[in-house]
Amino acid sequence: MLLREVAYAKPASLAEALEILAADDGARALAGGQTLINVMKARAGSPDTLVDLSALEELKGIELGGDGTLEIGAMATYTEIMASSEARARPILGEVCAQIADVQVRNRGTIGGNVCTNDPTNHLPPLLAAFGARFTIAGAGGERTVSSDDFFLGVYLTAVGSGELLTSVTIPAGRNDGFAAVTLGVEGTCIASAAASLNGSVRIALGCVDAVPVVLTPPSDDAEAVRKAVRDANMEPPSDVHASSDYRRHLAEVLAVRAVDQARGAA
Amino acid sequence: MSATTERSITVTINGTTYEREVEARKLLIHFVRDDLDLTGSHIGCDTGNCGACSLIVDGTLVKSCMMLAVQADGATIESVEGLADGDELNKLQEAFRAHHALQCGYCTPGMLMSATALLRANPHPSDDEIKKALQGNICRCTGYWNIFEAVKAAAE
């Protein structure tokens, strides 16, 4: 399909990219393009300028710190995360990336694009919310870091403001994680999803039930405690052609228990 | 480098280097088909679902309807036209023929590129690995079993 006319820039450094984004209200970051290009085809979004982030070394790489902290560049693709020996420090991350779409999409789609899109049906927002990940955002005024609780603000909306870029995602050490989803087709879009992290405390994040991941911290990983925490959240999930609000609420409870079971099995 | 709505790009496809002026809004699949007249790669859904436009760009399998031509500047690209040696089909193409792995043939160029990428990375895939590798390619004739058998035969 022919897209609306658009300008294209491929900056060589983060500073240059931020400068272009700050100078032009109609400029948008182009990461892997596996969402944005289709959004542009549908005219659901019509940026005036695309800022291709693929040459920015500052946004690449996957590093494992001595304390087990994982730092993943925003431009790391799902395939790179799946293949990374460093990322295996948190095995669920590669396992979930392997469930996203198909080989071609995983080869180009990025962790940064996935979370900055913050589509409620995406896999990584709930997973990173369950991890308690931190997000580093660069802008004209320098860098700041926000928690997952403050990063996801609404549907398609995050703490990354105009003229800013997500540069990396920092994931604390831990191995006892789980993820469960009901999807459209084997590895399709999520209808409902849940991620669980049992690393010190019980932290569950539910996807597809609200504009942002719903984070719960039940007092124990016991199935009844998990179910009660989901019920007590009093969620009003959206209804659509795939699932009614009631059914999503039901799935959230079931999937939360499954995710916690998987996390317990990993312990 | 400032933002422009057009730029000059250089790509090498199946060993031939092309330099062209392209609009930034042009998808890679349109560039390959319309500007370079390499019409073996197809446009099926144009939404990133069907995989008929799959190409190998710098060694990586991609859907070329979800990539701009300008993003391929400097890249080395492989398309279905590069598989055969003249009239001589390669082993994978022969296997597709022997196993009747195409009915209407529309999805075939994408299936071949996905299978090529798979067998290069993993010359002896398991049955599940073959199915996973072809997950991003849809055959509207639903001839999946024959495609699966062809890829399996080519791997042996």
Overview of this structure, please?
- The complex is a heterodimer of chains A (267) and B (156).
- In chain A, 32% of the residues lie in helices and 26% in strands.
- Chain A has ten helices and 14 strands.
- Chain A has helices at 14-23, 36-41, 78-83, 91-97, 103-108, 111-117, 124-131, 148-151, 223-232, 245-265; strands at residues 7-9, 27-30, 49-52, 62-64, 70-73, 134-139, 142-147, 152-154, 157-158, 165-171, 177-183, 190-199, 201-207, 214-216.
- In chain A, the strands form four sheets. A five-stranded antiparallel beta sheet of chain A has the order 4-5-10-6-7. Chain A has a four-stranded antiparallel beta sheet with strand order 11-12-13-14. Chain A has a three-stranded parallel beta sheet with strand order 1-3-2, with helices on one face.
- Chain A is globular, with a radius of gyration of 18 Å.
- The termini of chain A are far apart.
- In chain A, 51% of the residues are buried.
- The mean pLDDT of chain A is 97.
- Chain B is of the alpha+beta class and 156 residues long.
- Chain B has two domains: 6-80, Beta-grasp domain (Ubiquitin-like (UB roll), Roll); 91-155, Orthogonal Bundle (DNA polymerase, domain 1), CATH 1.10.150.
- A five-stranded mixed beta sheet of chain B has the order 2-1-5-3-4, with helices on both faces.
- Chain A binds chain B through residues 1-12, 20, 24, 27, 30, 33-34, 37-38, 41, 49-52, 54, 79, 101-105, 107-108, 186-187, and chain B through 1-5, 7, 23-27, 30, 46-48, 51, 54, 60-63, 65-68, 70-71, 73, 114, 117, 132-133, 135-137.
Write the layout of secondary structure elements.
The complex is a heterodimer of chains A (267) and B (156).
Chain A: E1 7-9, H1 14-23, E2 27-30, H2 36-41, E3 49-52, E4 62-64, E5 70-73, H3 78-83, H4 91-97, H5 103-108, H6 111-117, H7 124-131, E6 134-139, E7 142-147, H8 148-151, E8 152-154, E9 157-158, E10 165-171, E11 177-183, E12 190-199, E13 201-207, E14 214-216, H9 223-232, H10 245-265
Parallel strand pairs in A: 1-3, 2-3
Antiparallel strand pairs in A: 4-5, 5-10, 6-7, 6-10, 8-9, 11-12, 12-13, 13-14
Helix pairs in contact in A: 9-10
Chain B: E1 6-13, E2 16-23, H1 28-35, E3 54-57, E4 60-63, E5 76-78, H2 91-98, H3 108-121, H4 127-133, H5 144-155
Parallel strand pairs in B: 1-5
Antiparallel strand pairs in B: 1-2, 3-4, 3-5
Helix pairs in contact in B: 2-5
